[in-house]
Amino acid sequence: MKTEFSDIKSQLIQAEKMASLGHLIAGIAHEINTPIGAIKATIESVIEKHNDTFALYDQLMDSLSKADRIEVLDFFNRTCFAPSPPYLSTRETRILKKALIKELNALGLSQMSNNMEYIISLNIKSITPDIQKIFSNPKSQLILQLAYRIAIQNKGFETIGTAIEKVTKIIYALKSYSHLEEFEEMIEVDLIENIQIILTLYSNQLKYNIQLHEKFDKIPIIKGFPNDLGQVWTNLIHNALQAMDFDGELKIEVKDNLKYVQVDITDNGNGIPLDLQDKIFEPFFTTKSAGEGTGLGLDIVQKIVNKHGGNVSFVSRPGFTCFSVQIPKMKYIDNEIKQKILNNNAIKLKAEQEKKLMLDKVEKQLEARENITKQMIQKFKSRENLLIKRIEEKDNEIEQLKKRINE
Fold it and tell me: Using one digit for the tens of pLDDT, what is the confidence trace for 88-139?
């Protein structure tokens, strides 16, 4: 029976996970398609310009002396493969352009002003002696043009790398989230990474009208069931987003709290009505429209947190709702879970006692009713016997009367 109950509970949690995933799947598809589209477009661009770039490179290198080649290659390393420059506003670009033109004119390199687009895109902020030497080279125009092309292609490779990393992260999050729990015993869990996996799945819903505030303090590794914990954050984040109608501020805070690691998930939605706050952890209770919720989300949250020896609580008023989940640290977890088991056993014992008292009461009531029924049956039998006796007496009287008539 215990195994059957455990299996049903696991299936229930898995079903809720799949239902949550159903809400996310369109956004996840978009989040995967976007970087894949970027990879495709960038690869096409790189392939298209690849041959021209290398032809230009060969042409330049053939025309330079050995000493010039060393200087040009050094220039390429410092400009083409440098980290992407910070974004400059139109005003900042205009100021930088004016300062560079002034330097070029002072150095007698005014002809290089026509290449300002290349110079700024290569993140050149001032004309150093090394750069002055390159700009003074008769092939300076070709050098800048090639440096610009190499830099663009390098940025393309960076874009591909970033896009692949993003897709990999999403796929990892999906795999981590969707498969059944394989662990019979608790394992070490990085709680912050566990939460970030869920945030990755929600990235499409979070990037438009949601202001996400994350505050992750340094916390110890905990022991737990990672997939079950992921379902806790999924349910609480999804409820928060729905409460704000996907437009508002979501704050996720992880902090050290004495014996516990605490996760607070806060939204600025309408809040939970006071008359419903006592019911929200009840199975199948939901305030959502038909088809939008099973009423099992918070019930599952509470069951999972209790399974970890933790606590879940909330505070809610209009414009503010905060759910707090406390998971015990490793050195306290055994005691916490033992205490939870003792508490649960005490509750079960009390329930069994109440059930026995009720069954005894019902049994006595049935016994009393049975006695009354027996008495009634006995009365009916007595009346039936009396009636039969009277009928027999009447029959005797009739027989005697017949005899007299015949005489």
Answer: 788 888 898 899 999 889 989 888 888 888 888 888 888 999 989 989 999 9
- For CA atoms 371, 373, 374, 376, give the dihedral sign: positive
Tokens of 179: 């498969």
User: How far apart are alpha carbons 30 and 231 in whole angstroms?
Assistant: 22
- Rounded to whole angstroms, the Cα distance separating 206 from 201 reads 10
How large is the average pLDDT for residues 34-45?
74
Q: In sequence order, what are the residues at sequence separation of 6 or more whose Cβ sits closer than 8 angstroms to the Cβ of residue 329?
A: 220, 222, 259, 260, 261
CA distance 310 to 303: 10
Structure token digits, residue 59: 């042409």
Sheet order of strands, 248-257 included: 210-216, 248-257, 260-267, 320-328, 311-317
Q: Where are the domains of the chain?
A: 2-173, 187-328
Tell me the pLDDT of the chain averaged across its residues: 79
DSSP secondary structure string, 31-100?
HHHHHHHHHHHHHHHHHHHHHHHHHHHHHHHHHS-HHHHHHHHHHHHHHTSSPPPPP--HHHHHHHHHHH
CATH 2.120.10.30 fits 187-328, yes or no: no
Q: How far apart are CA 56 and CA 149, in angstroms?
A: 10
Query: What would the two tokens of residue 383 be?
Result: 């009346």
Cβ proximity of 310 and 336 under 8 Å? yes
Instruction: Spell out the alpha helix ranges (H) of 136-214.
Output: 140-178, 191-201, 203-206
Model pTM?
A: 0.51
